[in-house]
Specification:
By secondary structure, this protein is an alpha+beta fold. The chain has 11 helices and 17 strands.
């Protein structure tokens, strides 16, 4: 195949001195690798053919974004080489005994595309590498902050290129909501007791710092964050019952179900680690698709319906008292969200006789939340019922 390449493209030597960083595909020998030169530039190296003495490889310089596109499956190897960012491709043969290059060429993209070196049907399934958390580093961080910390890292192939909304709204936010439920934190003091640090992209990672009791022993944080790790580490009905027996509310089950479903739908892996600055304790767990599927089934069987009472403060945005099913819409000032649902029958007449200032006066609402987990026959749903309200002075 080399004899077909015009001699004007020949190099005296393959001038980028390359080091293998990662093997993306290996069947008896490296088929596709990521390599780096001394300047830190990245290259894809594709095995075109091999004899007993040497191998022929096509080598393409790639940007970080292009490499992420390949790893996430958004760009095929064939298209990556045929749409080279640098408009050129290296072709080289290497001695199998010592690894030295025996011939090298640098050809323009249009020329390379006519050589047919890249199999159009070649595809590689690149596994997401498991996150590695150093226990000593996380405990040391907790000690420096004097806070109980929870480090979470969500991995999925669809997060390699950028962070998707589900990672924030269906994983991070529900975890924060569980922490707030366990520690009785509301929107008015969440900034006082919670902090985020060590944000990481290329998947999504964040360290959550928790200090509610603000004393030397951090007993509440220790108990509740450890319980959260137990929840994320659960795999049986008995594991979930252990958590049930140690919590005062059922509201966290909706958040937990949201996390479980997000892991399943996005073929993701959630890594969570807990560190205590007082005891030096470190605990970690990994929630993958297989265990999430088991938990989803248990949640469906254990909780046909999850009910909870939420107390929120805000203002009425809309009231339809004359509808067949009287409805309401209120603004939740805690998280700047809108909650809407049905008005409980026993307060309909109260509302009719009351003077309510829409959008101005602040009220405290008692709202019943009915959450139905997803099953094989129906989607998950959340319904809200206004039970009572009173003016906040």
């Amino acid at each position: 195949m080399l004899e077909d390449i015009d001699e004007k493209y020949r190099l005296e030597k393959l001038y980028p001195s390359l080091t293998v960083l990662e093997v993306l595909d290996f069947i008896d020998f490296p088929i596709l690798t990521v390599e780096s030169d001394e300047g830190g530039n990245k290259y894809l190296s594709y095995l075109v053919s091999m004899s007993e003495e040497e191998e022929l490889r096509a080598i393409l310089q790639v940007s970080s974004d292009r490499l992420n596109d390949v790893k996430s499956g958004n760009l095929s190897i064939h298209d990556a080489f045929h749409k080279a960012e640098s408009n050129s491709v290296f072709i080289a043969t290497f001695n199998l005994d010592n690894g030295d290059d025996t011939a090298a060429f640098l050809v323009p993209s249009y020329y390379f595309n006519n050589l047919g070196m890249i199999n159009p049907g070649y595809a590689v399934s690149i596994k997401v590498q498991p996150a590695v958390v150093n226990p000593h580093e996380l405990v040391g961080f907790a000690i420096r902050k004097n806070k109980v910390v929870l480090d979470i890292y969500l991995q999925s192939r669809n997060l390699v290129q950028n962070v998707k909304p589900y990672a924030i709204f269906n994983v991070v936010t529900p975890i924060v909501n569980i922490i707030k439920t366990f520690l009785s934190i509301d929107g008015r003091n969440q900034d006082k007791y919670l902090a985020f640090s060590n944000l990481r992209a290329a998947s999504l990672g964040v360290t959550i710092e928790v200090n509610v009791s603000r004393d030397l022993f951090l007993e509440r944080e220790t108990r509740e964050i450890s319980l959260l790790i137990s929840l994320l580490n659960s795999s049986t009905k008995e594991d979930l019952e252990y958590v049930i027996g140690r919590t005062r509310s059922d509201s966290h089950w909706k958040s937990f179900a949201t996390i479980v479903n997000a892991v399943i739908k996005n073929d993701a892996t959630l890594n969570a680690s807990y560190a205590n600055p007082i005891t030096g304790e470190f605990r970690s767990t990994v929630l993958g698709v297989e265990r999430a599927a088991i938990l989803s089934q248990i949640l469906q069987e254990q909780f046909d319906v999850i009910e909870d009472i939420e107390i929120i403060e805000g203002s009425f945005l809309e009231i339809d008292i004359d509808a067949a099913e009287p409805s309401f819409k209120v603004w939740n000032m805690e998280d700047n969200s809108v909650v809407k649902g049905r008005i409980n029958a026993d307060i309909v007449e109260v509302i009719k006789g009351d003077h309510i200032n829409i959008g101005t006066d602040i009220y405290r609402f008692d709202i019943k939340v009915v959450y139905t987990p997803q099953t094989t026959t129906k989607k998950e749903s959340t319904k809200y019922f206004l039970l009572s309200y009173q003016t906040v002075p």
